[in-house]
Amino acid sequence: MRNIHSIDDVIVRFVMYLRLEKGLSVNTADSYRYDVEKFIGYLQDKSITDVIEDDLHNFVCILHDLGMAPSSQARIISGLKMFFKFLKMEGYIDKNPTLLLETPRLGRHLPTVLSVEEIDAMIEAIDMSKAEGQRNRAIIETLYGCGLRVSELVDLRISNIYANEGYVIVIGKGNKQRLVPISPVALEEINKYMVNDRGSVPVKRGSEDIVFLNRLGNKLTRVMIFYIIKSLCEAAGIKKTISPHTLRHSFATHLLEGGANLRAIQQMLGHESITTTEIYVHIDRTFLRDEILHYHPRNIKK
Prior knowledge:
There is one protein chain. The longest helix has 20 residues, at 70-89. 53% of the residues lie in helices and 4% in strands. The mean pLDDT is 82. The chain is mainly α. Strands 1-2-3 form a 3-stranded antiparallel beta sheet.
């Protein structure tokens, strides 16, 4: 069994393993690293190679007693499972103590969805007299028209927009690429922004190929997109608690309501598992009931 001379060095190699071999994003790998460091802090003077199942259960009980949400507990447990699997694979431990560690049961929470009218109201609330007006209009149309994650939006590149074909190449989780159809409306708004507004911005080095920039010529941050969405909702009088991801949920729900195939929605959203996409099936039960009543052979009048 290999000796651990520096736990910090092991954690660095663990993060490299997550990024290079498992293909996880920087944010996910950093979250796992942070969770492992919290567990090591809990152990105090005990070596990571001496951890037994009881140590892990006690740690999880503390998380529960602190009132941590089940979803956060599940993420931490997932990170610990990955870490101890890595330690065993690298020969630092002989037995993985997390094999019987259970994650808390998570209830399926239905995401908030905006109606088409509410999205139209957000767009109408954009002040087009401001310098960022056309940019923000293009942002909303792209988020809603393509169902992008906010990280995918801020990283969207000019060279990945194929207007003639009606597609964009999106770099999703784990740096995985996928083709996503883009609507003529979104393309038109992006083109107006590129022609009339983006050209007047002093583009900073490294952001030359990025579509959406701030007034200083840098790539927009995810926080800035959240602020834009929140401000537009307030201006439109929308009382729902939403985020940029709400437009992604709305995109998927409206596609489903329009009759799109669930597998097609899965590919457009970049979900690896169809079960992730199936949550949208539960959102509009009234619509699904109407579909069954209309199309099921038992309900068709002869």
